[in-house]
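A note on notation is needed here, since sequence and fold are reported together in a single record. The reader may check this reading against the record printed directly beneath this paragraph.
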Amino acid sequence: MRMILSLALALGLGTGVSAQQEVTLGTGAATLTYAPVGDILATAVTGAGELTLRPVPSNGSLDNIRAIAEGRLDTGFAQSDIAFWAYEGTSIWSGNPPVEGLRTIAALYEEHIHLVTLADSGIETVTDLRNRRISLDDVGSGTHVDARLILEAAGLRSDEFAVETMTGQAAATALEAGEIDAFFTVAGYPTAAIADLAARTAIRLVPIEGEIAVELLWRHGFLARSEIPAEVYPGVSGVETVSVGAHWYTSDAVPEAVVYELTRSLFAEGTQARLVEGHPKGREMTPETALDGVAVPLHPGAVRFYEESGVME
């Protein structure tokens, strides 16, 4: 990566950062959560004057991890389950070389699995998706993977429903037009695509609960029970669901000084204020929760910050 090479020359032993060196950040679709959070974070980090953090739109978790592994991105957001599988070379990453150089910067916030349908669709449980048209999001997204796990836990075979791969706003538009019957999204609430849809037409969130939730949590320890409260989306009742962590990742090829500065900037007072003001999930991004659910090794630059700040010993 051009940024890494220039920084390696500029930093020598990696004890400092040359001002305004560019670092890329893989985010996601504009109408979901990674993109707005990434924009807020990029503005705060760049404003600190040490680094320029540039958000790069992507298809989400899988896309970002692949780009980090291939050196096309310096950092990126991803679901913790997707990143762990990539690091281990297991599950959906089986058959591909493990991404052994993947490293964690911080755990950020919970991502909630949304299953969205029209209020009058008759879909009230996951099993009601049988013989329906469902968007599972793009094949390069964590949503697509988790949606498959949920359908499997509900006992639905792949030939018992029709699959579309629309994401964000495209899925919401298709649902409103009657082109699909439901769609999955894994994102921190509220997400713009669903909020805009709820403002235009009556929708329902389908719960992921009961035996299906028990099966999911038993099989996949990275998932946790969660809920989406009522009125997060206009006129929509709250539901029980499951969630997964959204984490910030990088490569062990990125110099320690750079990742230290990124971690320091994330938890700087000004950045924290911007995050709280700019997005409902901003309140969850704190030093106290930065190590929650971390299964991929921390980058040495992040370790240095957490040790200095007393977050870890």
Q: What stands out?
A: Confidence is low (pLDDT under 50) at residues 1-15. Strands lie at 21-26, 51-56, 75-79, 102-118, 133-135, 162-164, 182-187, 203-205, 224-228, 239-251.
